[in-house]
Amino acid sequence: MRLTLDGTPIDYQERGDGPPLLLLPGGAGHADIFDGLAAHLADHYRVAAMSSRLVSARQNGDQHPRVYAEDALGLIDALFDEPPAVFGFSAGAITTLDLLARHPERVRLAVVHEPPVAWTKRRG
């Protein structure tokens, strides 16, 4: 399936019935990566798996968490009547954290798996 947000196509897959659950892949990931997981979860959840805009729109460029978080928010607005649980891994985890930081009322629960974030100690 495809949703167009501000002129940019965003591909996603949806299945199941129940409380909403949004799955966000890492990097330039495609929703297909969640096929096995979504098949198991669809018995209990309405699962939407979102592809990266780099895949959907065949764009090149940097990944900006704020842009992807807005894509995720657009998908949430289009598909769900209530805030979903959101699961993201790798860069999808960073997207989930950005979405949660800027729109906490739009996320029921956030699960972030292995966000590639580094902490550096300042010297001084």
TrEMBL record:
Entry's transmembrane regions: none
Sequence ranges assigned to domain AB hydrolase-1 in this UniProt record: 19-115
Keyword terms: Hydrolase
Q: Which domain of life is it from?
A: Bacteria
A GO molecular function assigned to this protein is: triacylglycerol lipase activity
* PANTHER family hit by this protein: AB HYDROLASE-1 DOMAIN-CONTAINING PROTEIN (PTHR43433:SF5), HYDROLASE, ALPHA/BETA FOLD FAMILY PROTEIN (PTHR43433)
* Name assigned to this protein: Alpha/beta superfamily hydrolase
Source organism:
Amycolatopsis methanolica 239
